[in-house]
Amino acid sequence: MTQDAPLLEVKNLHTHFFTKAGVVKAVDGIDFKVNPGETLGIVGESGSGKSITAMSILGLIPSPPGKIVEGEINFKGENLLNKSQKQMRKIRGPEIAMVFQDPMTSLNPVFTVEKQLLETILAHENMSKKQAKERALELLNLVGIPDPENRLKNYPHEFSGGMRQRVMIAIALSCNPSLLIADEPTTALDVTIQAQILELFKRMQKELNMAIVMITHDLGVVSEVCDRVMVMYAGKPAEFSETKHLFEKGKHPYTLGLMNSIPKITHDKQKLEAIDGVPPDLRSLPKGCSFAPRCKHVMDSCLTNDPDIREVDDDHFVRCLLYEDSKKAVTT
Amino acid sequence: MSTLLEVKNIKKHFPLKNENFFSREKPVLKAVDGVSFSIEAGETLGLVGESGCGKSTAGRVMLKLLEPTEGEIFFKGENITSFRGEKLRKLRKDMQIIFQDPYASLNPRKTIEQTITEPMKIFNIPKEERQKKLKRLLDVVGLSSYHKSRYPHEFSGGQRQRIGIARSLALEPELVICDEPVSALDVSIQAQVINLMEDLQDEFNLTYIFIAHDLSVVHHISDRVAVMYLGELVEIGEVAEVYQNPKHPYTQALLSAVPEVNPNQEKQRIILSGDLPSPANPPQGCKFHTRCPYAEEICRTQVPKLKKVSSDGQMASCHFVKEVVET
């Protein structure tokens, strides 16, 4: 992996929502880097803040009630938080593109696929309509849609779920972004189709040399496609490491609990080791470590001290008091 | 063990709108098209397949929530296919269902107490006993008795699924059909609910038909597994047998598509091309031939039969799998 300038660097990001019922700290202090051409996985359960992280990067946080209260998002050396909406519009698409979770609702049902593809291309590239159409054909070919010439004239409802997701990916790729954010891109799909789409992501990445931030709750997907992983819990990173390393030497009790919760086909049947309890309410987080109420290894100090994230091994960060003594604290 | 439920060649066809006004043939969507199997008391049968393969419809036909177009259903040796009215109502006591969506399957205007005791009221169980049972049910599914006066919106997804489970157990059924009971839940909560369902099976001696698309969950909970494709059963057998030694090419592809949680394990992956064909217009011959990597001429013309493929009772329907004849 290159240790050159990272493509994206998120520093101490805090995104809060100010609601009538209180302040929801959806993202509460995360740091990560994405190098060019690399795939970063962000894993967590619903409400852990992974989608909000993506929205924050793209400047799509609905405001009010949401607000990025602290932090920096450096993309190619520039802080995106200082950009105006107009400048952001130039970045969304040609620089950073996004694929959403639900292929059934993220395409406009009343326009043909051609229209939706051309809209993006024409908005960002200096092309004639004819050139743009050629580009659209090329893109559909690239993502593996058979008979693209006829398919261009179809409406979204004429495509299956997997095909719609391919169209979404084609739209996202239309302006050659250097970073693609995929928010649960395969969650709504069947396993056989999921395998196709993951294969497609891997191929696209190789061919176009783009970085991918893959947001998912499925550790299986992570192990298939990601180089590095960040595990999130209640708006904070719990653990951050290389994928292989995480699966072999994961340390945070939440990461381990998550892995033990998944039934495995290759293993004999044993009782699943579930994590007790439920994720905390983000409006009233427990004092101390937010995972403490569900943690098996909870100590007295966990209930009062919120741990810092620490490097326990090379490029392996854990936010847990069990590893408080290891190596150095990472100051942010 | 005795056979609790047996279905013989059940079919469920839904009529479609006739697009050609002059055509006399009425088009139908064959959601379930000739499925037969039986399930022993106390066992868990997993029913897997992609969306649209007819697994949920099959589950509903077994409960007689849907009237089968053809075929017969036997419950404890009795043919229940033609049961109606009072007789069917009595039968429902013994067969219950847990639904997928814990958000939509509870009445938002009823308290948990009302929801769980409603089935008991219908079957005229006296009030004191209802209260006793309610307490016990809440206890076994891991809720507290102070929860009973609350409404569904006050609960999380996992808790709601627990309420759904408590409701389905209120009448002490023998057979519970679980239609994707954990797929709407987060991983950590999913494990809690699966463990709960396993405990309940032991405690109440339940028989489960577990409908799911998640192959690892089915592997974990089931004794036997049935794989469906476009309304037909393509393979059925003991879980260990089917997962380690899948005979049907579809089962092989399906299993190879499951993402491995261990990144060090390189997997031979069979990527199926194309999508599931529409059940309204299924391919001729073997329904899988359009996506099958081994398809040959015979597959396009002849429908394969479900046949025994191992001495342990594993069955598969493919032209190229050798039949095992018992001697």
From TrEMBL, chain A:
Pfam families: ABC_tran (PF00005), oligo_HPY (PF08352)
Keywords: ATP-binding, Cell membrane, Membrane, Nucleotide-binding, Transport
Keyword Acetylation: no
Topological category with respect to the lipid bilayer: Peripheral membrane protein
GO MF annotation list: ATP binding
Classification via PROSITE patterns: ABC_TRANSPORTER_1, ABC_TRANSPORTER_2
Subcellular locations according to the entry: Cell membrane
Domain ABC transporter: 8-259
InterPro entries cross-referenced by the UniProt entry: AAA+_ATPase, ABC_Ni/Peptide_Import, ABC_transporter-like_ATP-bd, ABC_transporter-like_CS, Oligopep_ABC_C, P-loop_NTPase
Tagged with keyword Glycosyltransferase: no
Predominant location category: membrane
Family: Belongs to the ABC transporter superfamily.
Name used for this protein in its record: Oligopeptide/dipeptide ABC transporter ATP-binding protein
Species name: Virgibacillus litoralis
UniProtKB/TrEMBL annotation, chain B:
Domain of life: Bacteria
Keywords of the record: ATP-binding, Nucleotide-binding, Transport
SMART domains: AAA (SM00382)
Record InterPro entries: AAA+_ATPase, ABC_transp_ATP-bind, ABC_transporter-like_ATP-bd, ABC_transporter-like_CS, Oligopep_ABC_C, P-loop_NTPase
Domain ABC transporter residue range list: 16-255
Gene Ontology molecular function terms on file: ATP binding
Coiled coil: none
Pfam families from the UniProt entry: ABC_tran, oligo_HPY
Family to which the UniProt record says this protein belongs: Belongs to the ABC transporter superfamily.
PANTHER family: TRANSPORT ATP-BINDING PROTEIN
The protein's name in its UniProt record: Oligopeptide transport system ATP-binding protein
Lineage summary: Bacteria, Bacillati, Bacillota, Bacilli, Bacillales
